[in-house]
Amino acid sequence: MDPQDYSARIDYRRPAAWYRRLNHVGVPLTRLGLAPGDAITLEVRGRTSGRPRRTPILRTPYQGKDYLVALAGEAQWVRNVRAASGSAVVRRRGTRRVHLVEVPPADAVPVIAEYLRRGRDRSGETAAAKQARYYFGLGPDATVDDIRAIASYYPVFGIEYDT
Prior knowledge:
About 35% of the residues lie in helices and about 25% in strands. By secondary structure, the chain is an alpha+beta fold. A six-stranded antiparallel barrel has the order 1-2-3-6-5-4. Helix 3 runs antiparallel to helix 4 (about 125-135).
């Protein structure tokens, strides 16, 4: 099954029903450490409900720091993080309080490039090409200039771990 196509440049698109159901499986698997090594569960307070909202997401290590890339652009978790002023919790075999800091699009370019590179390492060329196409609207051989052209559509947050 192909991933949901997030490459259109719109403010928000609701995830497909199958993808929302997948989150219900991904959260417990990630919390137990049974998902890929870079997978975490992000928990942030819902901006309207006030209830904790959990999203499985891949963290991207880059130059000694961890980042979250919003593949769906202005996703609900992005809106919730902004409303919570960056206050969140990440879970993977334990719980850590964090502060998420939004990265300017120009500084996000190398992080997105690293996300794509790690996808190739994690899933292989074919899956990585689908990911680049469906999530970012990029070809399999995307250049830094190609990524720079789309970076403003994909929020990136640096993770600052509380001590």
